[in-house]
Design brief:
Layout: H1 3-14, E1 25-30, E2 33-38, H2 52-71, E3 74-80, E4 89-97, H3 128-139, E5 145-147, H4 152-171, H5 173-181, H6 209-214, H7 218-226, H8 229-243, E6 247-253, H9 258-277, E7 281-285, H10 287-292, H11 303-317, E8 321-329
Antiparallel strand pairs: 1-2, 2-4, 3-4, 5-6, 6-8, 7-8
Helix pairs in contact: 1-2, 2-9, 3-9, 4-5, 4-8, 4-11
This protein binds flavin mononucleotide (FMN).
């Protein structure tokens, strides 16, 4: 494998999504073998307890690399979590040329186009044919599936769960600190940034921006919470856009074993790339699923809500663990702000 091919594979990897644009990946080449590790300095905090979010991002990164390499004629032999002694070591990939590899992989063309779109309203409908193609991409990864709330009762239950979880991100001081620390207010409301969330990507309406920025201060958030701010923000960031979007589905993984979460990230990425090919916009909502797992150390006052979230989610999508909701629809316009990425050199020491 030449140097350019290796670089191209890594570039495809870092185009993957990650919670709060944390990009928690480390790469190391050893000949044609590639090790993917989770970056200790960008993982393991609050919502990423037990590396659930990092494993999802690692799975998405891995899938992007596998898809791109295939389009170049390389097949991946994958060994996941190669060492019990190294919890950050997610995968070792051995690449080899395969004469049988026909190099046609339509998903490869969507890697550079895929992005998170938090705007709304989005038009519909999502045809049953498209839905079936998204389902097939999730099932392409063993054990993974999508659940689509169908009946009004199911949709209402899903909406309630997501709204409660998003509201908690503003009510819980721990989650509030985590959320706002990932927003790079210093770059202003129009520029991109190479790590973390640029305000431009958040689809906050211009008149609300000064207040939203003020809410990063814990004391201001607490004060506004007496007036019900967290509920309003949960309604605005989750309930309203989802109500106005035609598609909502949930990635369901078989268990919370790390290998299943990693596989969930791979499935998530395949679904997202397929949606991109179909001209659809996607916004993930991970809080309900991740908080519902019960691992995240929030204040004792909110622990009950976490177990209620977990129970309601299992009731909705059993068997399996519902992990990430995806809001899907046809965007009326292109997203104006895209998330940036760090330089490739910052992801490892490459020869
Ligand atoms: C595991 C995971 C969880 C995410 N959770 C959310 C979420 O709850 N809300 C949201 O708006 N975006 C969420 N995102 C999207 C990321 O913020 C986004 O991928 C990142 O900022 C990079 O931007 P891009 O997808 O446009 O490349 C999530 C992404 C991943 C991979």
């Amino acid at each position: 494998m030449n140097r350019q091919t290796k670089t191209d594979i890594l570039r495809a990897g870092i185009a993957a999504p990650s919670a709060d644009n944390s990009q928690p990946w480390r790469f190391a080449w050893n000949g044609d073998e590639l090790d993917l590790r989770i970056d200790a300095s960008r993982s393991g905090h609050v919502s990423d307890t037990r590396y659930v979010l990092s494993d999802l991002a690692a799975g998405a990164c891995l899938e992007n690399m596998i898809i791109h390499a295939w389009s170049l004629g390389y097949v991946a032999d994958l060994e996941t979590f190669p060492s019990d002694d190294d919890e950050l070591w997610v995968a070792r990939v051995r690449w080899h040329r395969d004469p049988g590899c026909d190099q046609s992989e339509p998903l490869a063309g969507a890697i550079g186009q895929r992005h998170t779109d938090r705007g709304f309203p989005w038009r519909g409908p999502i045809s049953t044919d498209t839905q079936a193609r998204l389902d097939a991409q999730a099932r392409h990864v063993r054990g993974q599936r999508l659940y689509w709330p169908q009946t009004p009762r199911e949709r209402k239950a899903a909406l309630k769960l997501i709204r409660q979880a998003e509201t908690l991100r503003f009510r819980s001081p721990t989650l509030h600190a985590e959320l706002f620390s990932s927003i790079r207010f210093a770059v202003g409301w129009h520029a991109a940034c190479e790590e973390g969330l640029a305000p431009a990507t958040l689809a906050v309406e211009p008149p609300i921006r000064p207040l939203f920025k003020l809410l990063r201060r814990p004391v201001v958030m607490t004060m506004f919470n007496w007036l019900g701010a967290a509920s309003v923000l949960g309604w605005r960031s989750a309930w309203l856009p989802i109500r106005l979007s035609p598609g909502l589905c949930l990635l369901v993984i078989p268990s919370t074993a790390r290998s299943d979460v990693l596989a969930g990230g791979r499935a998530l990425q395949r679904v997202w790339l397929e949606a991109t090919l179909a001209g659809l916009s996607v916004q993930p909502y991970a809080a309900a699923g991740v908080l519902g797992l019960g691992f995240v150390p929030v204040e004792p006052a909110f622990q009950r809500l976490l177990s209620d979230l977990g129970a309601a989610l299992s009731e909705l999508c059993a068997p399996g663990c519902g992990l990430v909701f995806l809001r899907i629809g046809h965007a009326q316009s292109a997203a104006d702000g895209r998330s940036g990425r760090r330089t490739l050199a910052s992801f490892g020491d490459f020869p």
